[in-house]
Amino acid sequence: MPLYKGLILIIFSCLCHVSGLSQTVNNDMTEAIELQIDEPFNSKTDGNTVQYACIDQQLTGKCIQYHNDQWFTFTNTNFETLYINIGNQQCRDLRGVQLVAFEGELCSPDTYRILDCISLATQDDIYTTIGPLKPNQQYWLNIDGYLHDYCQFKIEVSPTPKGVSVKAVDVLKKVGGQKKKNVVQLNWSINDSLAQSFQNFIIMRRNDAAFAFDSLDQVPVEFNAFGAYQPDYSFTDQLYEPGTYWYRIIAQNAESQKYLTEEFSFQINSIDLSKAILFLDYEENDDIVISVYNEKDELLETISLRYRSREHRNFTLYIDKYKKDATKELRIVLYNKDNDHTKEVFVGLE
Question: What is the pTM of this model?
Fold first, then answer.
């Protein structure tokens, strides 16, 4: 078998269970699927085995756990830099993908040189930068799944990055975050060169149970009538449910390329929040719908649940989030789909 030199990128997908797993065709390096630049490919990790002769666990250390193995290849033309875009992740757990880059001869671990090792914590669309690259050089991509689990994703080699950068870019000044009860405030400053390079900042948030970040708002880079930039920025968010929340400040340039700049986490305790306790007395597994209305009989929220007495008998309803749309009280409608029974409860807000 001929030897190839180049860059090898290893991508580790997150955990997700599927029954009846079987190996993919490109389980073997000699059967690697060839990716065309700018042509995305949908893939999944299906119970493959590891080619231990072609990896070196000592080089990757604690960053990697090898269990499944899947190979791709692509040939660079004359690009000095390319991006590996990972999107449309559909996985059971939150870890998302892990990426390791190294160069060397095919299936010769003693020639490998690690270029990068990245562990993520979400299933967001991301990209990593690969370069400098050699013209007309063949490169290899190895995709690995944890244990016997399963994750679907889309992979693309492209001169255009898509999603958010994997690594944080150190461009902000005086960046910080603080929490007072259930209110979070992010503060950051920029210099003149950053003001000229970027158009806005995207604020993203997720809680611990979420698989990906949600975009909350965009904060534009501002200039006054004399062309002077605004150096200081802030963003305030009010939270209405207890838990751990993660925030990201994403800088976006004129070409819509997104760079992760900072990440924060805050713990919101239930004692910080106004709440009402609803006593729910139903049969196990009853299908219950909780509808929340204000004084104008406007529907504010609908909550559906499969009744479990230990979990739902004393149901906590956090009411701070309704105060912007209601002033004095809430009307709570409890509907049992199984026996078509309806009950109303009123909760005061003052």
Answer: 0.78
